[in-house]
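Standup notes, structure subgroup. Blocker cleared on the PMV input:
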Amino acid sequence: MKAVAKAHTNIALIKYWGKRNDELILPMNNSLSLTLDHFYTTTEVQFDERLANDMFIFNGEQASEAESTKISSYLNMVRQYAGVKRNAYVRSINHVPTSAGFASSASGFAALAAASTKALGLEVDKKTLSMLARQGSGSACRSVYGGFVEWEKGNSDDGSDSYAKPILPEAEWDLRVLSVLLESKAKPISSRKGMKRTVETSAFYSGWLKAVDQELAEMKKAIHTKDFERLGEVTEANALKMHATMLGSQPPFTYWQSGTVSVMEEVQQLREAGIQAYFTIDAGPNVKILCLPEDEQIVRDELEKLPAVKGIYGCRPGPGIEYQDYL
Ligand code: PMV
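Run returned:
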């Protein structure tokens, strides 16, 4: 009745932006990500019929009310799937600097999905695990696999065809992703709220949907031919389009801050100097930079000179879900 699982975060190169079903978390478009080795969550779940409530310990401390409610409602879905009623004791350690604005929901829900199903003795394949992780946080469905991963949006109303598939394992292409931590101001609006407003009001949302399939096809070709330049160009163009949809929303919003723009400018300058570096940005001010292993040091050196840069975390392609004996 006890299991421990480890899941890594992933960075979307083709973004998931917009839901067609909020409750089941069904996306409007396919997305494609790279799982990262440096950031991960390990979670232990133990179901115990003697527990009066679910209990959660995050990084050694009692979880907040809001976190507890979120995890309990997720476990209710897993319990319903398994046909059991027992409460659970959950301990989770996040090796992601969450307070710094690096998202941990992908690794968090992927680890919770894997540990809770294993603790209940359920034999779930990766496709099912991906669908279960999706219902915690959309991007979590991609963290089931290592390396490059595509989340197929599916077309059904019940979500039975909306899950991730591996594209290229992590050992096949040695790249670097530099996660740049910025001096940032107030917390931005959640991805959940940002997506909803964009889908409902953005003058540019139809343009986003129209472009994404072509970008996805080009990116898959770039991955299979290991064409780094094309991979980077499509990654950057896709991120810029996603952020443009927010500017066309009502009321308009952006996750960019002055530091975000300074990093984007630096990446452009590096390219003008002949270094292949490309940026991508999620629903927050921080920037991730894709580069080749031989250019990592120079990219780091140049970024460290920027006053807004508070830290740089170097990542490589990382693995999918792993089970462990202990937390
Ligand atoms: O899975 P969520 O609800 O945290 O949304 C993720 C949204 C983006 O990070 C902006 C894009 C993506 O595909 O990960």
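Discussed briefly. The chain has eight helices and 14 strands.
Next: hand off to the docking folks.
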